[in-house]
């Protein structure tokens, strides 16, 4: 889960990491009031859940109130990488001469949280990583020791040469690590971290991602969630007991069990097709679940064929078959369906299906190939 810059900086501020004074605005009148409150210059910044806003024209420095209003008018409603700007941050403009990058994430190689720092801040860090990887310094943090004052100073000395700055920066680094752990983050970034003309180290930007599996114990963070349309679908699916992840292919899959769902996607790929989703209807499945799953698949306009793959264990194939028939009676399905049932009560299930003149197949390979054939026939 991602949050906005202004939200990240609120968290930074709660841990007393220095950030600029700023006001979140939804319209030009609020911007005028914010400028009045903060004084000039200000920076107008698009708040969208994606990076590279500066490059896209979503960050503008304004030296007059008129310029601030003009920038706000331009940025509100702007599209940045598919996200529409609905709110902007008006931040006190700060004078600085150098931009640094610092970030924390989880590193699988060292099996630890890793601190990254660079003197080449400001620009997108992905570009630095590509063109000049040695400009990014990496410090794995021992999970038992945590970010010790010694470690924080060691990192700070690698980035700054003035002891006054090292002191401020190492304090910030320890706090960042604390935030990372306490909030179950998967990423915390400050880009840029700057040294102001007054010699103060400050976060001018903030980015935080969180471990979705830890949100159950981070209720204050969960409240900040602004799911995208796809994520809303995934959440709704979860509420009806389904695990759904949208992909970009055209074969809609309905499967019981996560392992079988993975195998189904693999076999579709193996025969040259593309799954439109991962959909696990889970163990003992009620007809209602099948209806919910069908509704979900049909709501995706990319789905050209539905492939149902059920291996009956606890789930009984006749239950699924009945659910499917009920679903088909209730909704208009105008795309082909390929059904493979195997395991507990498969025979009864197949009988129910074939009584309704729905085609069935005998194996998983056959199901995948048939789904791909029908998919091609649609184009
Ligand atoms: P991003 O492009 O989405 O990462 O947005 P940032 O918040 O990092 O802003 C992009 C750039 O705008 C920064 O690297 C700075 O150079 C500049 N910037 C941001 N805030 C200020 C500020 O308060 N004063 C000045 N002069 N420049 C700023
Ligand atoms: Mn930035």
Describe this entry's structure for a reader:
The protein is α+β, with helices and mostly antiparallel strands and 379 residues long. The protein has three domains: 1-18 and 95-226, ATP-grasp fold, B domain (D-amino Acid Aminotransferase, Chain A, domain 1), CATH 3.30.470; 21-93, ATP-grasp fold, A domain (Dna Ligase, domain 1, 2-Layer Sandwich); 229-378, Rossmann fold (3-Layer(aba) Sandwich), CATH 3.40.50.261. It contains 13 helices and 17 strands. It has helices at 5-14, 28-38, 65-75, 125-131, 149-159, 163-182, 219-222, 229-239, 258-270, 287-298, 317-330, 346-355, 364-378, and strands at 22-25, 42-46, 59-62, 79-80, 83-84, 88-92, 96-107, 112-118, 136-141, 185-196, 201-203, 207-210, 243-246, 251-255, 277-280, 305-312, 337-343. The strands form five sheets. Strands 7, 8, 9, 10, 11 and 12 form a six-stranded antiparallel beta sheet that branches. Strands 1-6-2-3 form a four-stranded antiparallel beta sheet, with helices on one face. A hairpin with a 2-residue loop joins β4 and β5. α2 (28-38) runs antiparallel to α3, α5 (149-159) packs across α6 and α10 (287-298) crosses α11 (317-330). The radius of gyration is 26 Å and the shape is elongated. Guanosine-5'-diphosphate (GDP) binds next to β2, β3 and β10. Guanosine-5'-diphosphate is lined by residues 20, 43, 45, 51-54, 59, 61, 91, 93-94, 99, 122, 191-192, 204-205.
Roughly what fraction of the amino acids lie in strands?
15-25%
Low-confidence region ranges: none
The domain count comes to 3
Count the strands? Answer: 17
* Head-to-tail CA distance between termini: 36 Å
Class by alpha and beta content: alpha+beta
Main sheet summary = 6 strands, antiparallel
Helix content: 25-40%
CATH fold descriptor of the largest domain = D-amino Acid Aminotransferase, Chain A, domain 1
User: Can you list the ligands bound to this structure?
Assistant: guanosine-5'-diphosphate, manganese (II) ion
Number of helices: 13
Q: Give the overall shape, derived from the CA principal axes.
A: elongated
Averaged pLDDT, please? Answer: 94
CATH class of the largest domain equals Alpha Beta
Order of helices and strands: HEHEEHEEEEEHEHHEEEHHEEHEHEHEHH
């Amino acid at each position: 889960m991602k949050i906005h810059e202004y939200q990240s900086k609120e968290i930074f501020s709660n841990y007393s990491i220095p950030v600029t004074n700023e006001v979140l605005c939804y319209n030009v009148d609020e911007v005028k009031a914010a400028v009045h409150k903060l004084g000039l210059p200000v920076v107008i910044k698009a708040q969208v859940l994606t990076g590279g806003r500066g490059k896209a024209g979503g960050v503008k420095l304004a030296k007059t109130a008129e310029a601030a209003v003009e920038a706000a008018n331009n940025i509100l409603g702007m599209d940045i990488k598919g996200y529409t700007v609905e709110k902007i941050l008006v931040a006190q403009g700060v004078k600085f001469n150098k931009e640094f990058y610092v970030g924390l994430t989880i590193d699988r190689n060292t099996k630890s949280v890793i601190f990254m720092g660079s003197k080449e801040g400001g620009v997108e860090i992905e570009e630095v990583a590509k063109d000049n990887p040695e400009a990014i310094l990496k410090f794995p943090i021992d999970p038992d020791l945590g970010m010790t004052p010694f470690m924080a100073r060691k990192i700070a000395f690698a980035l700054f040469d003035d002891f006054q700055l090292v002191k401020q920066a190492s304090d910030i680094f320890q706090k960042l690590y604390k935030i990372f752990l306490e909030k179950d983050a998967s990423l915390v970034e400050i880009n840029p971290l700057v040294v102001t003309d007054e010699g103060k180290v400050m976060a001018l930007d903030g980015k935080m991602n969180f471990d979705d599996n830890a949100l159950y114990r981070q209720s204050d963070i969960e409240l900040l969630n602004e799911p995208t349309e796809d994520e809303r679908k995934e959440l709704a699916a979860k509420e009806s007991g389904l695990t759904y992840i949208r992909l970009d292919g055209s074969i809609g899959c309905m499967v019981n069990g996560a392992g079988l769902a993975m195998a189904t996607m693999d076999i579709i790929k193996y025969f040259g097709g593309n799954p439109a989703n991962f959909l696990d209807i889970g163990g003992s499945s009620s007809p209602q679940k099948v209806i919910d799953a069908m509704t979900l698949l049909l709501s995706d306009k990319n789905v050209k064929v539905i492939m149902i793959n059920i291996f009956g264990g606890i789930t009984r194939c006749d239950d699924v078959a009945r659910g499917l028939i009920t679903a088909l009676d209730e909704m208009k399905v105008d795309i082909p369906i390929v059904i493979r049932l195997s395991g507990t009560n498969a025979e009864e299930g197949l009988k129910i299906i074939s009584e309704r003149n729905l085609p069935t197949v005998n194996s998983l390979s056959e199901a995948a190939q048939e789904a791909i054939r029908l998919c091609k026939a649609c184009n």
